[in-house]
Amino acid sequence: MLESAFVLLGNEVSWLEVVAFVLALGCVALSVLEIHWGWPLAIASSLLYGRLFYEHKLYGDAGLQVFFALIAVWGWWQWLFGRRGSARGGAAGAGLRVASLGPGRRVQLILAWALGWGLLGLLLERATDTDVPWFDAFPSAGSVLGQVLLGRKFVENWSVWIVVNAVAVALFAYKGLWLTAGLYVLFIGLSVAGLLRWRRELA
């Protein structure tokens, strides 16, 4: 699948990237609509993107895709069978619905992202031959948090994804992965749509 499918902006686009692109776009669109079938698409697209990023020495993102594939199984389970201790409406044990972290846990989220960025940036800088350790580490650390929040249907996941996707556009453009950069532009739009839709569910 590493064979060239076409050339975009002077860079060859592989069939691997094309298939991963289509699956990832479907995955996010279904997540915005709270359709659980997005999770198996997440598993497939993550494994494909893991291979693609590894080929381009984006090791943080490559490792992240393996994590995504594993956590997608957990996320799928959460969306099908997950519960909250006290769900909206006061029904303890009710099915998993859209919820908010609240101000205190939002601060914890930002601190966890900063810590994850620092640790992953150091690891990539010292243990790999990547030329973009810190650039790669920032969206990778944020993506871990975003995926966990998405799995538990916290509305803040979309705010995290907006920031992650904006940085990822620049990273993939720098690496000449133009189709994937374009995908992440679409992801920004879908993340905004998800944020607006999920906020309405909280009202």
Describe the model.
The protein has one domain (12-82, 100-202). The longest helix has 25 residues, at 103-127. It has helices at 15-32, 38-55, 59-81, 103-127, 133-151, 156-174, 178-202; strands spanning 4-8, 11-14. Helix 1 (15-32) packs antiparallel against helix 2 (38-55) and helix 2 (38-55) packs antiparallel against helix 3. Strands 1-2 form a two-stranded antiparallel sheet. The protein starts with a strand and ends with a helix. With 203 residues, it is mostly helical. 72% of the residues lie in helices and 4% in strands.
Sheet with the most strands, sense and barrel status: 2 strands, antiparallel
**Order of strands side by side in the largest beta sheet?**
1-2
Helix count, DSSP H or I runs of 4 or more residues: 7
Number of β-strand runs: 2
- In terms of structural class, how would the helical and strand content be classed? mainly alpha
What quaternary form is this?
A: single chain
Strand content: under 5%
Radius of gyration: 17 Å
Number of self-contained structural domains: 1
Unreliable stretches (pLDDT < 50, length at least 5) are 87-93
Give the arrangement of secondary structure elements.
Layout: E1 4-8, E2 11-14, H1 15-32, H2 38-55, H3 59-81, H4 103-127, H5 133-151, H6 156-174, H7 178-202
